[in-house]
Amino acid sequence: MLVSLASPPVHALTLIVAVLAAALLALLAAISAGLLARWDGATFPRALLQAGTAFGAALTLLCSLIALGVVTLT
């Protein structure tokens, strides 16, 4: 009987890559929100606040979807 020892690290690596991809997408959303707010005439602190809000919301949504996928697949 052959036991695969490569399976758990592959799952961990997949999870790490998914979280990193979610962080990059959230960063992209934050940059876009900050630039759009600045172009709309918002002050710099207000644009940073909106960018931070967009980052937090996007990261929360993406990580909850990742968690849902992990729970569903296990």
Written overview of the protein:
The protein is mainly alpha-helical and 74 residues long. The chain has a domain at 23-73. It contains two helices and no strands. The chain has helices spanning 7-39, 44-73. α1 (7-39) runs antiparallel to α2 (44-73). The longest helix has 33 residues, at 7-39. The two termini are 23 Å apart.
Helices and strands in order:
Layout: H1 7-39, H2 44-73
Helix pairs in contact: 1-2
**How many strands, which pairing sense, and closed or not: the largest β-sheet?**
none
Radius of gyration: 18 Å
Roughly what is the average pLDDT, rounded to an integer? 89
User: Which blocks of ≥5 consecutive residues have pLDDT under 50?
Assistant: none
Q: In one word, what is the shape?
A: elongated
Instruction: Give the class from helix and strand content and strand pairing.
Output: mainly alpha
In short:
This protein has 74 residues and is mostly helical. The chain is built from two helices and no strands.
Keywords summarizing the entry:
about 85% helix; elongated; mainly alpha; about 70 residues
